[in-house]
Amino acid sequence: MQSGSNLKNTSPLIPAVDATSNVLMIASSETDANIYYASHFLAPDPFIYLQAHGRSTLLMSDLEVDRARAQSKVDDVLPYSEYESRAKASGVTAPGLCDVLHIFLEEKKVGEWIVPANFPLRYGDTLRKLGHTLITKIEPFFEQRSIKTDAEVQSIREAQVSVEEALDSTLDLLRHAEIKDGFLILEGEKLTSESVRRHLDIALMEKECIAQHTIVSCGIDACDPHNEGSGPLRAHQSIIFDIFPRSNRSRYHSDMTRTVLKGKAPDKLKRLYDTVLEGQLLGIEGVRADKNGREIHQEIVACFEKKGYQTGLIDGRMQGFFHGTGHGIGLDIHEPPRISKTDHILQAGEVVTVEPGLYYPDIGAVRIEDMVLVEKEGCRNLTTYPKFLELE
Question: How far is CA 19 from the centre of its chain?
């Protein structure tokens, strides 16, 4: 429970944050997509972003003032030290950030500030005691982040090209591997999830993309959708590659999943793959502006159930299709909207994934994922890498 009359609870009914809103953020743009989106300035340490009276301002340390003026896309960049001096002149012996920020905010003569839900509590409490009203807004903080500009779509596509090239070079390891005693052997060594993932991540790094938690998961491990995979890769079993790096150049992500196999696919696994592919293509066909994402998800579920693939707790483990169909992608790897059990009316300009999967330990696991741009009459697929199960 919050105390004090000037710290307000929020609901999704808060008006959208736009150029006329009074906004305050304190964060590092290396880890916080909202402040990077607003400032287009990349810095490892937290800084102050303020928007008031239709103008945007950064309050920066002397170390970063010149770089921020050259690189950011805000109206004003002001030195933190200037307001620190004013705080000292007002009688504060050793002013902290909130003392400095208080002087800064008082200058703007604004009654209420909208802050993101992750606004630092210690700063919020202190600013409230100093008389400032903070209105917390839950995500999405900037609704317009969901609607990608042409430049943002191009950034996502460029990152995706890097993913496709890196995956193709990595799959060459599997293509050239021999099958011996059920394992994949390359140059006398067993290929492992770890060694293949390392090759893939390095290939991405060479293309100025940084990958974290890349999934190279084989067999029963892949039946846990977020299991990154470990140990030797086995022949005749499905291997899920889920790759979602961030571009160092643009800060935008891409996201793609392919399921492949070295050797001969058992009939049950091949049927599972064909079913997931059918469901994924059905989902992509359903994506268009003004379509409810929940309906797309339900259509895929119905497709799977019609083929006899039920979802639920079996032998103490969730099996079937037990995750959402897709999510938005941009400066964050997971951002609004969602294509899932919950309602969301898709809008033109959103970039979403379509990634159904089926998971049965006695058969194997399959997930296939593309990124698509929502358009008025359908969608444009930003993923061009082919879909196949057996490696040739």
Answer: 24
Q: Assess contact for 77 and 58: CB atoms under 8 A.
A: yes
Structure tokens at 29: 């743009």
Q: DSSP string covering 167-197, please? A: HHHHHHHHHHPEEETTEEEETTEE-BHHHHH
Distance, C-alpha 95 to centroid of its chain: 37
Per residue in 324-379, pLDDT tens? 999 999 999 999 999 999 999 999 999 999 999 999 999 999 999 999 999 999 99
pLDDT digits (tens, 9 = 90+) for 234-267: 999 999 999 999 999 999 999 999 999 999 999 9
pLDDT of residue 150: 98
8, pLDDT greater than 60: no
Nearest to 295, CA basis, from 340, 351, 329, 335: 340
Burial of 111 (0-12, 13-18, 19+ CB in 10 A): exposed
Nearest Cα neighbor of 18 from 140, 155, 153, 151 is: 140
Residues 234, 379: Cα–Cα separation, whole Å? 37
pLDDT for 3: 31
Q: Which of 210, 216, 260, 245 is nearest to 368 (CA)?
A: 260
Task: Please give the domain boundaries of the chain with CATH numbers for all domains.
Answer: 7-144 (3.40.350.10), 147-381 (3.90.230.10)
Task: Tell whether the model's pLDDT for residue 10 goes beyond 80.
Answer: no
């928007």: which residue's tokens?
Answer: 51
What pairing do the DSSP bridges indicate for beta strands 326-328 and 312-314? unpaired
Question: What was the pLDDT predicted at 12?
Answer: 46
Instruction: Check if the beta carbon of residue 65 is closer than 8 Å to that of residue 79.
Output: yes
pLDDT tens digits, 139-149:
999 999 999 99
Amino acid identity of residue 119, one-letter, is F
Confidence of residue 13 (pLDDT cuts 50, 70, 90): low
DSSP symbols for 83-125? HHHHHHHTT-SS--HHHHHHHHHHHHT-SEEEEETTS-HHHHH
Q: Could you tell me which of 277, 262, 166 has the C-alpha nearest to residue 214? A: 166
Residue 234 exposed, middle or buried by CB count within 10 Å (0-12, 13-18, 19+):
buried
Pull the structure tokens for residue 232.
């030797």
